[in-house]
Amino acid sequence: MRADQCGPGEFFLDDSHMHENGFTATADHAVWGEHQRWGPMVTFTETPGRYGPGVLAGQHTDAVLDELGYDAEAIAQLREDGVAWSAEVPPIEAMLPD
What 8-state DSSP symbol labels residue 4? Predict the structure, then answer.
C-alpha cells in the first residue's frame, strides 16, 4: 500500500510494512479491550516508549492514594465523602449497538 493512497490512520493500522517494522502496538483498554494503536516511529535505547491504552478518569486513584500512605479504610472514606472519584467501567456489551 502506498502511503499517499489512504488516510494516515488506515495506513498506520493496515500496512504490512508498518507491522513488520514495529510501528504498531497492541494495547488492552479497560472498556474497549485489546486494540491496535500506533506505535513508536523512533525508539531510544535508554528511554523506551510506552504505548499502552488510554486511562479512565481516576483509574489510578486508589493506587496513588495507597502510595501516599492512605489505607483502604481512609480511601473508602474519601470516596464516600466525594473527595476521590473514579469512572466506572461499563460492561462492553452495554457499549455495543443492538
Answer: G
Q: What is the pLDDT of residues 54-75, one digit of tens each?
A: 788 898 999 999 999 999 999 9
What is the 8-class DSSP label of residue 86? -
Q: Give the DSSP per-residue string, 72-84.
A: HHHHHHHHHTTSS
* CA distances in angstroms from 87 to 12, 55, 79, listed in the order given: 30, 10, 12
Give per-residue pLDDT as tens, 3-17: 678 887 787 778 888
**Nine cell digits for residue 41:** 516511529
Q: Are the C-beta atoms of residues 12 and 23 closer than 8 Å to each other?
A: yes
Buried b (16+ CB within 10 A) or exposed e, 75-85: beebbeeeebe
Helix then strand then coil, % of the chain, to nearest 5: 35, 10, 50
Return d(Cα 35, Cα 69) in angstroms, integer.
35
Quote the CA–CA distance of 72 and 33 in Å, as a whole number. 28
